[in-house]
Each structure stands twice: as structure tokens, then as C-alpha cells.
Design goal:
Layout lengths: L5 H19 L11 H7 L11 H12 L21 H13 L6 H22 L6 E5 L2 H22 L9 E5 L4 H10 L2 E5 L9 H11 L3 E7 L11 H11 L2 E5 L24 E4 L1 H4 L7 E5 L2 H8 L7 H4 L20 H10 L1 H23 L4 E3 L7 E6 L4 H13 L7 E4 L2 E7 L7 H9 L5
Parallel strand pairs: 2-3, 2-4, 4-5, 5-6
Antiparallel strand pairs: 1-7, 6-7, 8-9, 9-11, 10-11
Helix pairs in contact: 1-3, 4-13, 5-13, 6-7, 6-11
Bound molecules: pyridoxal-5'-phosphate (PLP).
The site of pyridoxal-5'-phosphate has 14 residues, from α6.
Length: 454
């Protein structure tokens, strides 16, 4: 086990060369999930008293386990929201792993926390927040939304207490019917109610629907949530209309931009995000459309002191940190120990510059609008909704769920892509979510063409 033993050195080389080989694929094989029974047969008893030895464990991973994981960065992986980290970001994730940086406090991770904050400050500037904004990178949008809502409720509670008023019977927040499932999950964790506002014909939350929801909700509304790019369709709510209502009512305004807010970087779609600056908090996931590896969500508050009041953990062994007055990332979300998961994005931004990101996001939107046009012009295909960002949802005339499934299985089996069925209002469809610079219009046309063979 000595750090310089020949076995250790050889394993170090083997693992690093595995990582290098994975990065050098162009593209990596798509791969496919395997059954539990097969994995139990092919990789039995991997955790035992003696250990397998590093080389054997690595071989097992390379030959059995890794091929049973989908390559979500494959250009044909188009379902859910794919990921497409830059090489710079992936390389730096290795550095983060090798560096044992504690990202919860300034005292322990000042340099890395400074760099993460540079990225958060850039995002804050993009949406029009001023310099007092700040936040933290958390694990994902689910945790980002929860943390923002906890800060919102805490703020509402403090306001009631300051006014000498009593608490409402139930706390509630308003979001649209097309908002992400993580908001409902947050409501369950917080034991609060969700008031679902209607959307317009395009799936967008608008001001009037928020006014209606507020009226039906009665008292106890502590937050209004807009979605800046729904996961299913990439539709952006009317952020300014909703924000003005929230601000006028003195209710916390949160913008969930986990997938779509990156679209603010493109001149083509920047106008859609007008009004984000009215938010009290927003999130955007670098692992979705900011070309960073899993897993990271940037959570930014207009007034971070409100989040700190809600989230700081107190304890005898922590007091030396919490009393210091330093910027401690752990104070701004539901977390304590944390990986400096914003650093891969920081390194990639510092390497390539923001301009490269604007271009890459614009290119994805261009590919999406090109394939939307192809679909529009194909009499057998129909767009379910007009594409707005980089998600394209469409139906094939006469296809049932079974047809989509058969086609999807074929694409996966052939290693062409992952395009799973989806549905809207009970009707099956499928969708392309495009966040990978290697996903070209040509590839998407090729995938559409395979529908003819079904
Ligand atoms: C993906 C997504 C989330 C959840 O983010 P995770 O990183 O998967 O936890 C929340 N909101 C929206 C709009 C999303 O697209």
C-alpha cells in the first residue's frame, strides 16, 4: 500500500491511461444498460475481504461495468437532457478529484471558492444582477430549487415575525403546470403546498395565470417560480410579466433555468430571458447546457444574506468558520461538506473564454431550428410545438407508443443514438434535446431517416 510501490505506480498509470483513452474516443461508443442478472454473473463478489487488486478491478470496470453505462456525451444521445463537457472541463474534474479541496468554507478552500465565485458572478452579470449577488454550486437543479425555496420561506417567515403576524395555516408556492418535477419534490420535503398555475397554448406561464393562482391560493404564498426553458419542450415562461407581479406583491421570485437559462448566452434567444433580473434567485445547471461534467448546479441569489440566514449550520466545531465573516459556500444551500464542483466550468471558461460558450449555445439552437424545419417540411412528421431553445418535440403520423419503442430499441441496438418515446396530453411523441456540439443536423436527419425502415 506504500505510495511508491511498483504496484501503485503501475495502477496510477493504468487508471490515467484509461481516462485518457475514454477522452480520446471520437465519439465514445454509445453502450447500453445491462440486466442485474448479467452483471451479477459477469462481475460477482467485487467487494470482499481480500480485494480484487487494482488491475483486476480496473479491467472489470473497463470490460463489464463501463459498457453497461450509456455515454451521455454521445452525439446521438438526445433524450432527457444529455451532457457534453468540454475536454478542458473534464480534465479539470480529474484535478478536482486529485486535489482534496474542501469547498464548504473560505478558510479551507479560499482559492477554489474564489474561482467558483468568479463563475457565479459572471452568471449573475449575464442575467442583470448587481455585484452584491452570490451563491453556490450544488449537486443539481433539484437541490438548487429546494435550497432557493427554503431561503424564500425563511425570508417570508422572518417578515411575518418582524410584522408581529402569525404564520399561515399552510405555506405555498406558485409554479406552472409544466414546471419541473423537482419543484413538487421540494414541496414534499418542505411540507408545503404547490399552487399550479395554468399555461397558455404554447405551454408558457403568463402574468394573468399567476394573478389567478394567487387569488385562488389565498394567504401563505412565499414564492413564485418561473421556468426558463421547460425540460420537456424548452419553453421559457414570460419572465418579466411574472417577475413584476412577484416583486409588486413582495413575494420571492425564483427562476428555474436548470436546462434553458444557458440560452441567455445566444443573441438568437437572449430576449426570451428578459426579466430574469427581477428574480430573487435563479439556477442553471452546468452539466446540462454549459458543457461541464456531472454534477453541478449554479444557484445564485440577488441578496445572499437572506439565503445565509436560512441555511447556515451552527455547531460547536463549526463556530470558528461561521463567526469569521468569510464567504463560506456551505451557508448558501442545503449542504455542508462539498466538492468544488464549479471548478471544471471555471477552468473551461478561463481556457476558452465566454465567447466560445455564446457560440456553442447558438450553434445548438441553430441545429435545433434546422431540424425543426426538416420536420415541418416532412408530411409524415409534425412538430408538437414550435421549437424555442434546443429541444425539438415531434410526432410521426400514425405511430403508436409501440412504434416509437421499436424504433428507439433499434437506434440503441445499432449504437446510433438514444431517442426514447415521450408524450404530450396522453399522445406519444419523441424529442431531440440538443446540447452537444457534436450533434449535427446531418446526424439528426440520418436518425429521422431510420423511421422509414420501421
Ligand atoms: C433538470 C432540471 C431540474 C433538475 O435538475 P437536476 O440537476 O437533474 O437535479 C430542475 N428544473 C429543470 C427545469 C430541469 O430541466
Amino acid at each position: 500500500m506504500h505510495a511508491t510501490s511498483p504496484e501503485t505506480l503501475a495502477l496510477r498509470e493504468a487508471v490515467l491511461s484509461y481516462a485518457r483513452a475514454r477522452m480520446e474516443y471520437d465519439p465514445a461508443p454509445l453502450d447500453a444498460p445491462d440486466t442485474l442478472e448479467n452483471l451479477q454473473r459477469l462481475a460477482p463478489d467485487t467487494v470482499n475481504e481480500k480485494g480484487l487488486g487494482g488491475q483486476a478491478a480496473l479491467s472489470l470496470f473497463a470490460e463489464v461495468l463501463a459498457p453497461a453505462c450509456l455515454s451521455t456525451d454521445h452525439p446521438g444521445y438526445l433524450s432527457f437532457i444529455p451532457t457534453a463537457p468540454t475536454e478542458a472541463a473534464t480534465l479539470f474534474d480529474l484535478v478536482v478529484s486529485a486535489s482534496s479541496i474542501y469547498g464548504g468554507s473560505w478558510m479551507e478552500g479560499a482559492g477554489a471558492v474564489y474561482a467558483e465565485n468568479e463563475v457565479l458572478a459572471w452568471l449573475a452579470r449575464e442575467v442583470g444582477f448587481d455585484e452584491s449577488a452570490g451563491g453556490v454550486f450544488v449537486q443539481g437543479g433539484t437541490l438548487g430549487n429546494l435550497s432557493a425555496l427554503v431561503a424564500a420561506r425563511h425570508t417570508a417567515e422572518a417578515k411575518l415575525a418582524a410584522d408581529g403576524k402569525s404564520r399561515p395555516a399552510r405555506w405555498k408556492f406558485v409554479c406552472s403546470k409544466e414546471a419541473h418535477s423537482s419543484l413538487k419534490a421540494a414541496a414534499r420535503v418542505m411540507d408545503v403546498d404547490v399552487v399550479l398555475a395554468e399555461v397558455d397554448g404554447e405551454g408558457r406561464l403568463r402574468g394573468q395565470a399567476v394573478l389567478d393562482a394567487l387569488e385562488s391560493a389565498g394567504d401563505g404564498v412565499f414564492a413564485i417560480v418561473s421556468t426558463a426553458g421547460t425540460t420537456n419542450f424548452g419553453i421559457v415562461d414570460r419572465l418579466r410579466e411574472v417577475g413584476e407581479i412577484a416583486n409588486a406583491a413582495g413575494i420571492w421570485y425564483h427562476v428555474d433555468g436548470a436546462y434553458g437559462l444557458a440560452g441567455i448566452l445566444s443573441d438568437k434567444t437572449k430576449y426570451l430571458f428578459d426579466g430574469t433580473e427581477l428574480a430573487d434567485s435563479f439556477i442553471v445547471d452546468p452539466h446540462k447546457w454549459l458543457f461541464a461534467p456531472f454534477d453541478a448546479c449554479a444557484l445564485v441569489y440577488r441578496n445572499p444574506a437572506l439565503a445565509k440566514a436560512a441555511h447556515t449550520q451552527h455547531g460547536e466545531y463549526l463556530d470558528t468558520l461561521t463567526d469569521s465573516g468569510d464567504w463560506n459556500p456551505s451557508d448558501y444551500a442545503y449542504n455542508l461538506t462539498r466538492r468544488v464542483r464549479g471548478l471544471p466550468l471555471w477552468f473551461s471558461l478561463a481556457t476558452h473564454g465566454v465567447g466560445a460558450y455564446r457560440e456553442a449555445v447558438s450553434d445548438n439552437i441553430q441545429v435545433a431550428s434546422e431540424i425543426a424545419e426538416v420536420i415541418r417540411n416532412n408530411p409524415k412528421l409534425k412538430l408538437v410545438r414550435e421549437q424555442e431553445l434546443s429541444v425539438v418535440v415531434f410526432e410521426r403520423e400514425g405511430w403508436s407508443l409501440k412504434d416509437y419503442e421499436r424504433w428507439s430499441d433499434y437506434l440503441l441496438h445499432e449504437g446510433i443514438g438514444l431517442v426514447v418515446p415521450s408524450s404530450h396530453l396522453g399522445k406519444p411523441n419523441t424529442r431531440f434535446a440538443i446540447v452537444n456540439p457534436q450533434t449535427t443536423t446531418e446526424l439528426l436527419i440520418k436518425i429521422l431517416d431510420t423511421m422509414e425502415q420501421m
